[in-house]
Automatic annotation (TrEMBL):
<dbReference type="Pfam" id="PF15294">
    <property type="entry name" value="Leu_zip"/>
</dbReference>
<feature type="coiled-coil region">
    <location>
        <begin position="90"/>
        <end position="164"/>
    </location>
</feature>
<dbReference type="GO" id="GO:1903565">
    <property type="term" value="P:negative regulation of protein localization to cilium"/>
</dbReference>
<dbReference type="GO" id="GO:0005737">
    <property type="term" value="C:cytoplasm"/>
</dbReference>
<keyword id="KW-0175">Coiled coil</keyword>
<comment type="similarity">
    <text>Belongs to the LZTFL1 family.</text>
</comment>
<dbReference type="InterPro" id="IPR026157">
    <property type="entry name" value="LZTFL1"/>
</dbReference>
<feature type="coiled-coil region">
    <location>
        <begin position="190"/>
        <end position="234"/>
    </location>
</feature>
<comment type="subunit">
    <text>Self-associates. Interacts with BBS9; the interaction mediates the association of LZTL1 with the BBsome complex and regulates BBSome ciliary trafficking.</text>
</comment>
<keyword id="KW-0963">Cytoplasm</keyword>
<protein>
    <recommendedName>
        <fullName>Leucine zipper transcription factor-like protein 1</fullName>
    </recommendedName>
</protein>
<comment type="function">
    <text>Regulates ciliary localization of the BBSome complex. Together with the BBSome complex, controls SMO ciliary trafficking and contributes to the sonic hedgehog (SHH) pathway regulation. May play a role in neurite outgrowth. May have tumor suppressor function.</text>
</comment>
Length: 242
């Protein structure tokens, strides 16, 4: 029975110790999670876990506070521990608020600076646009003047060309008239020369007909013609079909 009781007590004690360790782990986890929400940096000192004085204080705390239920009910009237001082959290929050306000002031100052720069840039842009419009206006006026000058020069050139064309037309008309007159005179001269040539040929022919060689040649041709006629008659007599 003692052996069984020893095994049971050992199991119960082991279970309680395990549950206590797990409970402590969960408690520490909650504390660390809450500390992380407030940006707290917790540090642990393992050496203090072996501090005998602190361990005795914990044992004394267990003796005085964790007693029998009757004793605990009697001691409920005792003043409880005061809550932890939240000055550290408030100070941290105040520091964070101060930091955020400083950043906000810096951002506001930067925003004002950017607004000033933007306004100056807008003014410069407006001035540049005005200068560009004035420059475009001046350029357009110069272009109009240049175009008007070009148009005037072109009109002068056209007028000069028109005068040259009219002069050339009048000169061509005069030259054409002179050419026609020259052509008519040339035709008359040609006809006169042709007439003179005809007369000269006739005279040459008369003179040639009056020569002895012409008369002899004419007699020979006459005889030859008579001989050809006689030969044709004979051929028709012997070869009438052909």
């Amino acid at each position: 029975m003692l052996d069984d009781l020893q095994a049971v007590v050992r199991g119960e004690v082991e279970t309680e110790l395990i549950n206590t360790a797990h409970t402590n782990v969960l408690l520490l986890r909650q504390l660390f999670s809450q500390a992380e929400k407030f940006y707290l940096r917790l540090q642990t000192d393992i050496s203090e876990l072996e501090n005998r004085e602190l361990l005795e204080q914990v044992a004394e705390f267990e003796k005085t506070d964790f007693k029998t239920p009757d004793k605990m009910n009697q001691e409920t009237s005792k003043p409880k521990l005061a809550p932890l001082n939240e000055g550290g959290v408030s100070e941290l929050l105040n520091k964070e608020i101060t930091r955020l306000q400083e950043e906000n002031d810096k951002l506001k100052s930067r925003l004002r600076t950017l607004e000033t720069q933007a306004m100056s840039a807008l003014d410069e842009k407006t001035k540049a646009e005005r200068a560009l419009k004035d420059l475009q206006k001046v350029q357009s006026e110069h272009q109009m003047m240049a175009h008007s000058q070009e148009i005037t020069s072109l009109e002068d050139t056209v007028a000069a060309l028109k005068d040259d064309y009219e002069r050339s037309l009048s000169a061509n008309a005069a030259s054409q008239k002179d050419l026609q007159e020259n052509l008519i005179s040339s035709k008359h001269e040609l006809l006169r020369v042709q007439e003179q040539l005809t007369l000269a040929e006739k005279e040459l022919e008369k003179k040639f007909q009056q020569t002895a060689a012409y008369r002899n040649m004419k007699e020979i041709l006459t005889k030859k013609n008579e001989q050809i006629k006689e030969i044709r008659k004979r051929l028709q007599r012997y070869e009438p079909n052909e």
